[in-house]
From TrEMBL:
<dbReference type="InterPro" id="IPR009799">
    <property type="entry name" value="EthD_dom"/>
</dbReference>
<feature type="domain" description="EthD">
    <location>
        <begin position="12"/>
        <end position="84"/>
    </location>
</feature>
<protein>
    <submittedName>
        <fullName>EthD family reductase</fullName>
    </submittedName>
</protein>
<dbReference type="Pfam" id="PF07110">
    <property type="entry name" value="EthD"/>
</dbReference>
Length: 106
């Protein structure tokens, strides 16, 4: 699996709950349509382990079969629509991509 991992913080004028509801609702409707999307996990961050980790609201891990499939998704009209929906929202994000390795499964 090749993943796009997004760590995001809400706009300053939104509550955490508003942001998660939007992310898992209106924004999710666009995300589900991404071509080649094989899996999507979302974590609602409710507690930071330590002070340097504070200030984030959620993590999305979007899984694709290959880097090429992710590149196609990022070039798609569906991705453009998701980006347009975010618009000039003044939240923060970190976006990284890479190969997944399962390290443990119970």
């Amino acid at each position: 699996m090749y993943n796009l991992v997004l760590l995001a913080a809400r706009p300053p004028e939104w509550t955490h709950e508003q942001f998660i509801t939007w992310w898992r609702g209106d924004h999710a409707e666009l995300t589900y349509r991404l071509p080649g999307l094989r899996a999507w996990r979302h974590t609602d961050i409710d507690t930071a382990l330590e002070p340097r980790s504070e200030g984030w609201d959620g993590i999305s891990v979007l899984g694709f079969d290959s880097p090429e499939d992710l590149k196609k998704a990022l070039a798609s009209p569906e991705w453009a629509a998701a980006v347009a929906q975010v618009g000039d929202m003044k939240g923060r994000r970190i976006a990284v991509m890479g190969h997944e390795a399962e390290m443990f499964a119970a």
